Every structure is written in structure tokens, then in C-alpha cells.
UniProtKB/TrEMBL annotation:
GO biological process, one term: cellular detoxification of fluoride
HAMAP family listed in its UniProt record: FluC
Family to which this protein belongs: Belongs to the fluoride channel Fluc/FEX (TC 1.A.43) family.
Cellular component aspect of the GO annotation: plasma membrane
InterPro entries, A to Z: FluC
Binding site for Na(+): 75, 78
Membrane topology: Multi-pass membrane protein
PANTHER family according to UniProt: FLUORIDE EXPORT PROTEIN 1-RELATED
Name of protein: Fluoride-specific ion channel FluC
Designated gene of the protein: fluC
């Protein structure tokens, strides 16, 4: 088994645990009318992925580090399946406009965070 596979698995475990902790904390702090926890982890995960991608484009990142952080941690921290389920649940519960707004906000936040992460990484003295 390759070291990259082990690194991705280790990062994935950490990302899943972090997602669970952050989602729970956000849910306790704000209203549950919208899935703010999922929006938070997806935005944070894509910001981190942008940082990693920005660093990787400026320096040599070992494949094990990429597997650990980008594939494992960011992959498990972000959650497209939960996001999709929540959009569908909002729509099925008679809130189609809220579902559409949540979907659009998630995509905008994720893409914006990814771009911000890349820009932040480029600003670092590497």
C-alpha cells in the first residue's frame, strides 16, 4: 500500500472528525432553519484547499502532503453529499426558494473561498 493512500486515509479521518465538531458547534450557535454547519465546513474546506493549491503551485509539495491535506482532510471536511441532501430536504419541506438560495450561496461561498485561499497563498513569502 502506498504512503499516499495512508496519508489520504489519515487526513480523511481528521477531516471527518473536524467536520462533525464544527457542524455541531455551528448548529448550537445559530438557528437551524438553514444548514449553517454544512455551509461553514464547505467554505472552510475550500478555503484550505485553495491555500494548499496556491502553495503547491509555488513550491514542490510532496505527494504524501497533498494526499494528507488536499485529498484527505479537505475531501472529508467538505461534504457534497450532505449539502445535496439538505437542498433536497429544504425543497421537499415546502421551501424551494430557500433550497435554491442555499445552493447558490454554498456554491458562491465555496468558489469565493477557493479563490481567496489561492490569493492568500500567493501573498505568502514562499
Amino acid at each position: 500500500m502506498s504512503w499516499e493512500l495512508w496519508a489520504a486515509g489519515l487526513g480523511g479521518g481528521a477531516g471527518a472528525a473536524l467536520r462533525h465538531l464544527v457542524d455541531g458547534a455551528v448548529r448550537r450557535m445559530v438557528s437551524d432553519r438553514l444548514p449553517w454547519g454544512t455551509l461553514t465546513v464547505n467554505t472552510a474546506g475550500t478555503l484550505l484547499l485553495g491555500l494548499v493549491f496556491g502553495v503547491a503551485s509555488a513550491t514542490a509539495v510532496p505527494p504524501q502532503a497533498w494526499a494528507l491535506v488536499a485529498v484527505g482532510l479537505c475531501g472529508a471536511l467538505t461534504t457534497y453529499s450532505t449539502f445535496s441532501h439538505e437542498v433536497l430536504a429544504l425543497a421537499r419541506n415546502g421551501r424551494p426558494l430557500t433550497a435554491a438560495a442555499y445552493a447558490a450561496a454554498t456554491e458562491c461561498c465555496a468558489l469565493g473561498a477557493l479563490g481567496a485561499g489561492v490569493l492568500l497563498a500567493r501573498a505568502l513569502p514562499l
